[in-house]
Amino acid sequence: MMVMHRIYAWFRRHRLAVDFTLVAILWLLFAATTLLGSEAAGSFVIATLLVLPLAWRRARPTTAALVIAAVAVVQWALAIQPGPADVAVVLAVYAVAAYGARWASIGSLFLALLGAVMLVTRFYTDLTMETVANLPSTAFLVVMVWVLVLFSWTLGDLTRTRRLREQALEGRTHRLEVEQQQERALAASDERSHIAREMHDIVAHSLSVIITQADGGRYAAAADPSVATATLQTIAETGRASLQEMRRLLGVLRGGEEASTRPLPGLADIDDLLLGFRAAGLELSFEQSGKPRRPLPAGAELTAYRVIQEGLTNVLKHVGPCATAGTSLQWVARGLQIDVLDDGRGAAAYPPAGGMGGNGIRGMAERIRLYDGTLTAKPAPGGGFRISAFIPYTEA
After folding, report:
1. What are phi and psi of 322, to 5 degrees?
2. Fold type of domain 282-396
3. Residue 187 and residue 190: Cα distance in Å, rounded?
4. pTM for this prediction
């Protein structure tokens, strides 16, 4: 089967060479036959002119059929006896039906049927007083030629239908491949954005706490060396927690069977998050009101956790010393309202595009939009900076 498939593929790639080879073989056979007749010269020329256009029967089917039809008319007008080369007419009908335009296919069929009548009445019927007696045999010959022409045209039309179907399937396959490539590219881009958000949230938070603790501990240790021990303990705990989250994230990316499908924290871990910021020296308050009508999806809880983490990390990095922050979670009828407010320097404390080159606030906005929520980040009216996010319930 593989050998036949390769042979068929080779024939499709070298169609013109195959056609010229077949025409050369037919021409040698028909030319040798015509040289045996009484009208050798005329028959040889007609046979040559009938056979040669078949080399372009697939590349230029309509042109080849018109040339063959013209030669056949000349043969009829000069009364040159038909020979084996006249089979080129039937082959031309097949070629036009298979590879030509629809109008050319129908036109070649009618011309061939008319040519059959002209052929029989010209060369195989005696137009004398006995014509009426020869009508049955004449009609029989005409019908026989018509059957041959119709068979050739039908076979060509079926080939045309199959070819168009194959082209449609190839086009559809190509479109599907393009769509799959685009979907893979979009999925890869979305995954890269997701990984970038996770990496930013983990690394930015952890490094901010570590840097703050290291700077504060360095100055405080000069006056009280015991502070260095507590500072190093906070740095170590923060580093271990970040390393654990990184390992969980990488475990999910590797796709292992034992990897957790929810490797990152949620609302239940808010208290531990706040303890880490308080240990870093940030004075903050936390309020929670209302009761959830139903639990949020795990991804929405992770989004809420990241919003609080990013907001407090920005306070720690940008607002400066002696600033305080407040965080509140309020369960309302439609979902969860999250607010992070500081009393620092307002808009002057934040770069124009958000923290970390814009990845911080932009990442929060992208997370919130995934759950049809809203996010606002702007200076508060009484001073400081406020980040407000709302995550609605996912209604069935």
Report:
1. 65, 15
2. Heat Shock Protein 90 (3.30.565)
3. 5
4. 0.47
